[in-house]
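call fold target=ABC transporter permease
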Amino acid sequence: MILAKEMVRHRWASFLGTFAALAVGVAVISGSLALWASAQPRTPKPLAAAEVLIASPRYDPPDGGFPTYRPWSPEEVDELVGRASRTPGVAAAIPDRAFYVQRLVDGKPAGNARDAVHSGRGWASAGLSPYGLVKGNAPDRPGEVVVDAALGVPVGGQLPVLTAAGPATWTVTGAIDGPGLYVDDATARSLAGGVTVIGLRLAPGADAERVADGLGLGALGEPLTGTERSAAEPARDTRTRWIGAQLIIATVLVGGFVAVFVVASTCAFSASQRRREIGLLRAIGATPGQVRRLLLAEVLLVALGAGVLGAVGGALLAPLLEGPFVAVGLEPTGFQVGLSWWAMGVSLAAGLVVAALGVWLSARRTSRVPALDALREAAVEKRPMTPSRWIVGGLGVVVGGGLAALLPGSTAEQKPTIVLCSAMVLLVAAALLAPAVVVPLVRLVTWPFRRGATGMLVREGTSVAARRVASTAAPVLAAVGFAVLLVGTFQTANEAVGIEDTAKIPESAVAAPSGAPGLSEAAVQAQRGRSELSSTVYLASGEPIRATGSADVSGLAAAPSLGWRVGESVPLRFVDGTVQSVTVTQVSDDVFIDTVVLPRALVRAHDPTALTEVVYLSGAFAPTAGAEELTARAYVERRAAVEGDLIDLFLAVLLGISVGYTGLAVANTLLMATYGRRQEFTTLHRTGATTGQTLRVVVVEALVAVGAGTLLGLAVAVPALFEARAGLAEEIGADVTLVMPWGTLAAVVGVCGALAVAASTLPFLRRGGLPLLRRGDLSAGARTMAG
């Protein structure tokens, strides 16, 4: 361990990249775990004061999807409220009725549209929340409302609002110290759908667990106490948290994997520069096992310091992501990140594991360095390509080429997937074969400049240092290839989907929601055109299926996947909890899978909360609150942007991590290489080269290596993009424009180039000139041994 500490102290420059990679990796893991720990389901704030919650019967999908709670019928609600009220220890049993309402400011919906879906409640539900009336009185008749005191609306003032029925104006009777709008219970009953939660307020001293056990609900519901009450969280919040969790998991996996890659490549390049040093250790009696343990101890010492810095830094920076996560829909409103000690501990341990994995392979190879390598003087790399690189890289070329050979016989739907898989395999193969490919490419690129001193030195320097050049170019190759391929494929696919979806809309214009989650009934009735009302119905098993209300049907039209026959009577439970048998009048392939189409009036009668997504206009647009006119193309693009924004965020995070680590790998390789080339620079200096001339050679070498990696990455990604575009065009039967992500490409190459130049020039700037070889300059290991 003493020797390892001395090695780290004397060779600190060669460990900078490892330190940075591990610190960033641990910070990513620490911050991600803190976000994940804070993103677990919580008891909804509007129900937080209820010691016991009764949840309606739950349906768990057989495929493991999100559980759903089917609403009780009005009769079941009355029965449960009566039963709970008679249970010893219960002071009050209150059904929670929530509905959509949004404040109108200057005739336009204000606030968060997602939160507005459940922001309205009956006044009785206020008794389930931790909020209290701070001024005024409770609403006791239709048209009255208690508002959030933060809105600043005075008691007696008028509040314009938008509900699923349409615009209305309510009189403010009071203010409450929390979010939401509370109306009288009769109004809430008419605006809300069915009840899925009943909250119980207990008498002083009553035990929640004992009360829950005494309810005797049977199949009618499930009592929830303590942390179990988080199951009452709205389904939309549960789905939002799940999306955020996927991003966090992907971030941890990508960050950990790339950190291992960077540490491994850094250690491998460092080992190739330390062959004489390791040979000297072998010459004085060090065994391969001792060499492996030395290399492992070095990296673990670096990892410990980097891990502590990263673990603390990640935990402290994680709260900065609260707002962005809520803004893009990855977490519900009210999301807060707390300090998590276990997240810091786990991330620190993960950093040590990543370091050990990264150094393991290079340590095994380095430990077999012969003692005679201590006598080497030449720095020429005799074998930049190892047998394993040839085998795995060649296998990648065969597999990638084989997948590409399948394209002529594949269907239009299969082509984009085959192209993507083939290109990714070929990118990995190209990165592995980089030492054999980069040098000829660099010589070809620099051929016009071979007569100049700088061009000649760059050409000849790359010829004898293929590993160094490949270690710089390979990460750039992978980053450029993956970035261009993923972003280009996604953007081109978006273009194709937009063309296809627009072609399905015969109308030239639509009425779409503006600042609201959907169109109110009043907005729909004001337009001339066709529309569908989206809702949900429940089968006898409790399984929810999508229901669409349409004016074009008089009975029930079902998808074939439901297995129903024409003339069959099917009992359906609607959103208000009412069960009604409906006769199947049509089974059609035109109906989406697991969907039913019902008369619009029937759906509206049983689902007062339903909102319409769009009206396809057949006449002039009638301006109404919460609606705007869009062209068909603009509507399709906006609808795609809802999902596209999340995918863009996923891509940005994944590519940001990948490009960041790529920059670290490039910078560390060049930093170590520059420090390791002191004797070469000293020779140049003694033959008459100035510091500026030597610096120019180093900078050009770095940029040429980055350029070579960029060209190789584009050579794989661009043809794949053209093939993907052709497959998409064939699939939709229309011409699709290839979208080349120039901005992404410029950002990736710019970051890599800037870091490459900075890392190449840092040793010069630090020393105020050439990093010259000092007299008696020995390796750290030799000095330590001599001491």
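return ok
Residues 772-787 have pLDDT under 50 and may be disordered. The radius of gyration is 33 Å.
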